[in-house]
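A common beginner's mistake is to predict each chain separately and then try to dock the pieces by hand. The better habit, illustrated here, is to supply every component at once so that their relative placement is modeled jointly.
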Amino acid sequence: MSTNGMTSWAVDLKDVGALYPFQGSETLLVILGLAFWIGWHVWQIRHENAELASEKKRGTGDKARKFIDRY
Amino acid sequence: MGDNLSSLTVIFTEFYYWVTVVFMFLIHVGFCMYETGASRRKNHLHTLMKNTMAIPLVTITFYFFGWWIYFAFINGPGITGGMTSAQFAEPWSPLMATHLSGPSPALGVPAEGLEGAAYWHRLNGVFWAAFLLFSITTASIISGAIIERARVGAFWIIAVLIGSVAWILDASWGWHPGGWMVKLLGYHDAYASGVVHAIAGGAALAFLLVLGPRLGKFRADGTPRDIPPHNPWLVTIGLFLIYTGFWGFYAACNIPMISPASIGGLITGETWTATNIYLAPTTLSAITFNFLMSLSGGMLAGYVISKGNPFWTYSAGLCGIIGASAGNDLYHPIQAMLIGAIVPSIAYKLHYWVERRFKLDDAVGAVAVHGYGGFLGVVIAGFMLWGQPSSPYEGYAAINPLGNFIGACIMVALGFIPTFIVAKILDGANLLRVPKEVELVGLDFEDREAYDAAVSDVTSAERAMVK
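With all components supplied together, the output reads:
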């Protein structure tokens, strides 16, 4: 058993193609990869919304003026 | 070098490794930047010099014995055989100097008497330097964890111990085409998750356990305080430079071009190839795909898990690479990305759990990024590459989960045990930690006083000249 089908390097390299493990799962990998990417944007937008709402609430009055002066 | 093709191959290979060495130097620029940025202003010069001086110390000791260890200890010795001859790596060998492979009558040694002279005379220096840069990296990883309270002399002794002895011993065992771990365990760690990072993480852990936390790191109730870096910008750009240097690190782990006949293993035909460190075929394209995808997986996951913290996002990118490095010669890029995302997520959680539970003050997360990340990377590669040949030579164990798990444990132990012993000895001799009074005022106290006095002197003089 081998995760890429190769169990020995006793081959002519001109006859060897893909080497990565679990060949045939490319479509699943792409779906997982896309889900990771889209999921990241969803999380990021939600996190940024929460962060901006918090900063908007807290950044007022003297505290805001102090931060402006810090440049 | 017999014919023009041989000459071209050797000279190309010589130049290839030389370029990797230049790139890898950026890792150390990056380490110095991020470690200095992570320290407080009162310690930053001391922190800079602590890391910087590891470079010359590891360099000269790696010349004296480190390079020889790599070739001499591949069998253990005593596991798959005895010590092996490595004339070209002995510091008194003419091949450890300028040499054109012809006879050297002044030494009374004909070139034919030196095995492999025609090959080694050109490549020895650049091979040595590439491995040296791995050595300095291994030592530098420890340096960041112990900032602001360790004595520099203690660190420099540990740097030589790990950089020029322990890591190169593990490389001889698990990162050499003939290493016993590769033969017996099927150990596979192509881009050094274990042989560089896990051992350095193990050494940093041992050093920290003996050294103890910085004053003020933990409150009376045991909860940790954050000790912010004096310059977060320098920290993150330092990590960015480490990424850049890693390109050289990855390329240096490959043989750029070699014929099946030169490998001398089971491969048939006449197709030349690039190989990994075990002389098993891979391509620069494969590791370029996987380097970038594992870096990206790590950065994206790090951003989420640290809620956008710049230091941890950059560190997770590095940890993503380290987590996938053991198998990045063979992974699919999306596999590398997912592994690169999972490993730093675990390492990040472990960092804070260990900090709270064991009061471990790892100032830069070195144990997490390199130790936990490297260990997990080796273990995951054992599963992902299960059953694949570990070597182009006959009679080697195939890559397998148990072999890589045992190998990962050996890597951590090879860093942890010698560092713990030497740190205990240094601590017993009162050479490990600076006095409490010095730690409080800062390690740059005298430099700062001299600086202030010089500034006062020159500005007074200039003010007096104003009419």
